Amino acid sequence: MRQYAVFGDPIAHSKSPLLHNRVFLELGVPAFYGRYHLKEPSSLLERFHALGLEGANITVPFKEVAFEQCDEVRGIAQKIGSVNTMVKEGERVIGYNTDAEGFFQTLEGKLRPQNVLILGAGGTAKALAMIFDLHQIPVTILNRTPGRLKPLAEQGFKTLTHEEFAPDSYDLIINSTSAGLSDDSLPLPAPWLESLLHSGVLAYDVIYGKTTPFLRLAKAQGARFQDGREMLISQAALSSLHFTQHHFSLSTLHSLMRLALPQ
User: Fold this and answer.
1) d(C-alpha 226, C-alpha 205), whole Å
2) Is 150 a catalytic residue?
3) With bands split at pLDDT 50, 70 and 90, how would you rate the model's confidence at 151?
4) Cα–Cα distance measured from residue 33 to residue 21, given in angstroms and rounded to the nearest whole number
5) Does 133 carry a binding-site annotation?
6) 135-145 per-position pLDDT tens digit
7) What are the residue boundaries of the structural domains of the chain, listed by start?
8) Does domain 101-227 have CATH number 3.40.50.720?
9) Closest CA to 18 of 242, 210, 180, 229
Protein backbone atom coordinates (compact mmCIF):
# COMPACT_ATOMS: atom_id res chain seq x y z
CA MET A 1 0.00 0.00 0.00
CA ARG A 2 1.37 3.38 -1.01
CA GLN A 3 1.72 5.98 1.74
CA TYR A 4 1.03 9.73 1.52
CA ALA A 5 0.81 12.48 4.15
CA VAL A 6 0.47 16.18 4.82
CA PHE A 7 3.21 18.00 6.76
CA GLY A 8 2.52 21.11 8.80
CA ASP A 9 2.66 22.89 12.14
CA PRO A 10 -0.08 22.89 13.35
CA ILE A 11 -1.57 19.93 11.51
CA ALA A 12 -4.34 18.35 13.64
CA HIS A 13 -6.96 20.55 11.92
CA SER A 14 -6.06 19.38 8.40
CA LYS A 15 -8.89 17.87 6.35
CA SER A 16 -6.53 16.68 3.61
CA PRO A 17 -6.66 13.03 4.78
CA LEU A 18 -10.45 13.04 4.38
CA LEU A 19 -10.15 14.26 0.80
CA HIS A 20 -7.38 12.00 -0.42
CA ASN A 21 -8.51 8.85 1.39
CA ARG A 22 -12.01 9.28 -0.09
CA VAL A 23 -10.43 9.32 -3.56
CA PHE A 24 -8.28 6.28 -2.82
CA LEU A 25 -11.23 4.35 -1.40
CA GLU A 26 -13.75 5.19 -4.13
CA LEU A 27 -11.34 4.66 -7.01
CA GLY A 28 -9.73 1.50 -5.65
CA VAL A 29 -6.25 2.98 -5.26
CA PRO A 30 -4.18 0.92 -2.79
CA ALA A 31 -2.97 3.88 -0.74
CA PHE A 32 -3.38 5.68 2.60
CA TYR A 33 -2.97 9.38 3.42
CA GLY A 34 -2.11 10.60 6.93
CA ARG A 35 -0.90 13.65 8.84
CA TYR A 36 2.59 14.42 10.15
CA HIS A 37 3.27 17.13 12.72
CA LEU A 38 6.66 18.44 11.68
CA LYS A 39 8.50 20.54 14.25
CA GLU A 40 11.94 20.81 12.67
CA PRO A 41 11.86 22.33 9.14
CA SER A 42 15.28 21.01 8.16
CA SER A 43 14.08 17.42 8.59
CA LEU A 44 11.25 17.61 6.03
CA LEU A 45 12.88 15.62 3.24
CA GLU A 46 14.47 13.23 5.74
CA ARG A 47 11.06 12.47 7.28
CA PHE A 48 9.51 12.09 3.82
CA HIS A 49 11.94 9.29 3.05
CA ALA A 50 11.90 7.77 6.56
CA LEU A 51 8.11 7.43 6.42
CA GLY A 52 8.33 5.66 3.07
CA LEU A 53 6.07 8.19 1.36
CA GLU A 54 5.27 8.24 -2.34
CA GLY A 55 3.94 11.79 -2.10
CA ALA A 56 3.00 14.53 0.34
CA ASN A 57 1.32 17.86 0.70
CA ILE A 58 3.01 20.69 2.54
CA THR A 59 1.15 23.34 4.48
CA VAL A 60 2.15 26.27 6.69
CA PRO A 61 4.86 27.07 7.50
CA PHE A 62 6.97 24.72 5.37
CA LYS A 63 6.16 25.46 1.71
CA GLU A 64 9.32 27.44 1.09
CA VAL A 65 11.36 24.82 2.96
CA ALA A 66 9.91 22.18 0.65
CA PHE A 67 10.97 24.24 -2.35
CA GLU A 68 14.55 24.25 -1.09
CA GLN A 69 14.67 20.54 -0.23
CA CYS A 70 13.10 18.94 -3.32
CA ASP A 71 15.48 17.35 -5.79
CA GLU A 72 13.66 19.12 -8.64
CA VAL A 73 10.89 21.72 -8.84
CA ARG A 74 8.58 21.90 -11.84
CA GLY A 75 5.96 24.21 -13.29
CA ILE A 76 4.82 27.44 -11.69
CA ALA A 77 6.47 26.42 -8.41
CA GLN A 78 9.79 27.43 -9.95
CA LYS A 79 8.64 31.05 -10.19
CA ILE A 80 6.78 31.06 -6.90
CA GLY A 81 9.60 29.60 -4.83
CA SER A 82 7.05 27.57 -2.90
CA VAL A 83 6.05 23.89 -3.02
CA ASN A 84 2.88 22.36 -1.59
CA THR A 85 3.05 18.98 -3.35
CA MET A 86 5.94 16.52 -3.28
CA VAL A 87 5.97 13.38 -5.44
CA LYS A 88 8.55 10.60 -5.50
CA GLU A 89 9.92 9.64 -8.91
CA GLY A 90 12.40 6.80 -8.55
CA GLU A 91 14.76 7.98 -5.83
CA ARG A 92 14.13 11.67 -6.46
CA VAL A 93 11.48 13.95 -4.98
CA ILE A 94 9.78 16.37 -7.37
CA GLY A 95 8.07 19.53 -6.13
CA TYR A 96 4.95 21.20 -7.54
CA ASN A 97 2.65 24.03 -6.53
CA THR A 98 -1.09 23.45 -6.90
CA ASP A 99 -2.12 26.34 -4.63
CA ALA A 100 -1.94 28.95 -7.39
CA GLU A 101 -4.08 27.25 -10.02
CA GLY A 102 -6.35 25.74 -7.36
CA PHE A 103 -7.11 29.15 -5.93
CA PHE A 104 -7.77 30.77 -9.30
CA GLN A 105 -10.21 28.01 -10.23
CA THR A 106 -12.38 29.01 -7.26
CA LEU A 107 -12.87 32.52 -8.70
CA GLU A 108 -13.93 31.41 -12.17
CA GLY A 109 -17.48 32.45 -12.87
CA LYS A 110 -17.67 34.47 -9.65
CA LEU A 111 -15.24 37.37 -9.90
CA ARG A 112 -12.68 38.80 -12.27
CA PRO A 113 -10.85 41.10 -9.83
CA GLN A 114 -9.40 44.37 -11.00
CA ASN A 115 -7.33 45.14 -7.91
CA VAL A 116 -6.22 42.59 -5.30
CA LEU A 117 -4.81 43.01 -1.80
CA ILE A 118 -3.01 40.00 -0.32
CA LEU A 119 -2.39 40.00 3.42
CA GLY A 120 0.80 38.14 4.27
CA ALA A 121 3.90 37.25 2.29
CA GLY A 122 4.48 33.54 2.91
CA GLY A 123 4.37 30.64 0.49
CA THR A 124 0.64 30.87 -0.16
CA ALA A 125 0.83 34.61 -0.79
CA LYS A 126 3.61 34.07 -3.31
CA ALA A 127 1.53 31.48 -5.14
CA LEU A 128 -1.51 33.75 -5.31
CA ALA A 129 0.51 36.77 -6.40
CA MET A 130 2.08 34.77 -9.21
CA ILE A 131 -1.20 33.42 -10.60
CA PHE A 132 -2.74 36.90 -10.59
CA ASP A 133 0.35 38.22 -12.36
CA LEU A 134 0.00 35.52 -15.03
CA HIS A 135 -3.56 36.74 -15.59
CA GLN A 136 -2.38 40.38 -15.65
CA ILE A 137 -4.34 41.36 -12.53
CA PRO A 138 -2.71 44.04 -10.33
CA VAL A 139 -1.71 42.87 -6.86
CA THR A 140 -0.58 44.62 -3.68
CA ILE A 141 1.08 42.46 -1.03
CA LEU A 142 0.93 43.72 2.54
CA ASN A 143 3.05 42.23 5.32
CA ARG A 144 3.84 43.29 8.85
CA THR A 145 7.62 43.25 8.33
CA PRO A 146 9.80 43.80 5.23
CA GLY A 147 11.86 40.59 5.25
CA ARG A 148 9.55 38.35 3.23
CA LEU A 149 8.49 41.19 0.97
CA LYS A 150 11.93 41.73 -0.52
CA PRO A 151 11.95 38.82 -3.02
CA LEU A 152 8.40 39.71 -4.10
CA ALA A 153 9.40 43.33 -4.65
CA GLU A 154 12.38 42.13 -6.69
CA GLN A 155 9.93 40.23 -8.93
CA GLY A 156 8.10 43.48 -9.63
CA PHE A 157 5.16 43.17 -7.25
CA LYS A 158 3.86 46.15 -5.31
CA THR A 159 4.71 45.45 -1.69
CA LEU A 160 4.02 47.39 1.50
CA THR A 161 4.74 46.98 5.19
CA HIS A 162 2.13 47.94 7.76
CA GLU A 163 4.05 51.15 8.40
CA GLU A 164 3.83 52.10 4.72
CA PHE A 165 0.21 51.12 4.17
CA ALA A 166 -2.60 53.58 3.55
CA PRO A 167 -6.01 51.95 2.90
CA ASP A 168 -7.02 52.02 -0.78
CA SER A 169 -9.83 50.49 -2.84
CA TYR A 170 -9.70 46.76 -3.66
CA ASP A 171 -12.36 44.38 -4.92
CA LEU A 172 -10.65 41.25 -3.57
CA ILE A 173 -8.88 41.04 -0.21
CA ILE A 174 -7.22 37.75 0.69
CA ASN A 175 -5.99 36.71 4.11
CA SER A 176 -3.10 34.33 3.46
CA THR A 177 -1.78 34.58 7.03
CA SER A 178 -2.50 32.20 9.91
CA ALA A 179 -4.36 34.93 11.82
CA GLY A 180 -7.58 33.42 13.09
CA LEU A 181 -6.50 29.80 12.53
CA SER A 182 -6.22 28.96 16.22
CA ASP A 183 -7.10 32.26 17.91
CA ASP A 184 -9.25 35.37 17.48
CA SER A 185 -6.61 37.56 15.89
CA LEU A 186 -7.06 39.65 12.74
CA PRO A 187 -4.52 39.95 9.91
CA LEU A 188 -4.77 43.76 10.09
CA PRO A 189 -5.94 46.22 12.74
CA ALA A 190 -9.74 46.28 12.85
CA PRO A 191 -10.08 49.98 11.87
CA TRP A 192 -8.07 49.36 8.69
CA LEU A 193 -10.16 46.35 7.74
CA GLU A 194 -13.39 48.24 8.46
CA SER A 195 -12.31 50.90 5.98
CA LEU A 196 -11.42 48.27 3.35
CA LEU A 197 -14.38 45.92 3.65
CA HIS A 198 -17.69 46.97 2.12
CA SER A 199 -20.43 45.58 -0.13
CA GLY A 200 -18.31 45.72 -3.28
CA VAL A 201 -15.50 43.60 -1.85
CA LEU A 202 -14.95 39.85 -1.71
CA ALA A 203 -13.11 38.90 1.48
CA TYR A 204 -11.36 35.56 0.98
CA ASP A 205 -9.65 33.65 3.77
CA VAL A 206 -7.48 30.69 2.80
CA ILE A 207 -8.25 29.18 6.24
CA TYR A 208 -11.08 26.68 5.98
CA GLY A 209 -13.50 24.94 8.31
CA LYS A 210 -14.33 27.97 10.42
CA THR A 211 -15.58 31.52 10.14
CA THR A 212 -12.45 33.41 11.08
CA PRO A 213 -12.48 36.84 12.75
CA PHE A 214 -11.53 38.29 9.35
CA LEU A 215 -14.62 36.76 7.72
CA ARG A 216 -16.86 37.71 10.65
CA LEU A 217 -15.77 41.30 10.27
CA ALA A 218 -16.33 41.15 6.51
CA LYS A 219 -19.87 39.89 7.09
CA ALA A 220 -20.54 42.65 9.62
CA GLN A 221 -19.33 45.24 7.09
CA GLY A 222 -21.63 43.91 4.38
CA ALA A 223 -18.87 42.44 2.22
CA ARG A 224 -19.09 39.11 0.42
CA PHE A 225 -16.92 36.48 2.03
CA GLN A 226 -15.52 33.04 1.31
CA ASP A 227 -13.40 30.63 3.31
CA GLY A 228 -10.73 28.31 1.95
CA ARG A 229 -12.87 25.19 1.47
CA GLU A 230 -13.03 25.41 -2.32
CA MET A 231 -9.36 26.30 -2.57
CA LEU A 232 -8.52 23.29 -0.39
CA ILE A 233 -10.53 21.00 -2.64
CA SER A 234 -9.19 22.47 -5.88
CA GLN A 235 -5.54 22.33 -4.88
CA ALA A 236 -6.03 18.84 -3.41
CA ALA A 237 -7.60 17.56 -6.62
CA LEU A 238 -4.65 18.92 -8.60
CA SER A 239 -2.26 17.26 -6.13
CA SER A 240 -4.18 14.01 -6.51
CA LEU A 241 -3.57 14.12 -10.26
CA HIS A 242 0.14 13.85 -9.45
CA PHE A 243 -0.38 11.20 -6.76
CA THR A 244 -2.43 8.99 -9.10
CA GLN A 245 -0.22 9.55 -12.16
CA HIS A 246 -3.07 11.35 -13.99
CA HIS A 247 -5.09 8.12 -14.25
CA PHE A 248 -8.34 9.89 -13.32
CA SER A 249 -10.03 13.05 -14.54
CA LEU A 250 -9.83 16.26 -12.54
CA SER A 251 -13.62 16.48 -12.50
CA THR A 252 -13.87 13.02 -10.91
CA LEU A 253 -11.36 13.97 -8.22
CA HIS A 254 -13.19 17.23 -7.53
CA SER A 255 -16.54 15.47 -7.19
CA LEU A 256 -15.27 12.84 -4.76
CA MET A 257 -13.49 15.42 -2.60
CA ARG A 258 -16.60 17.60 -2.38
CA LEU A 259 -18.51 14.57 -1.10
CA ALA A 260 -15.79 14.06 1.53
CA LEU A 261 -16.01 17.67 2.71
CA PRO A 262 -19.66 18.80 2.59
CA GLN A 263 -20.48 22.43 3.31
Assistant:
1) 6
2) no
3) very high
4) 6
5) no
6) 999 999 999 99
7) 2-97+230-260, 101-227
8) yes
9) 229
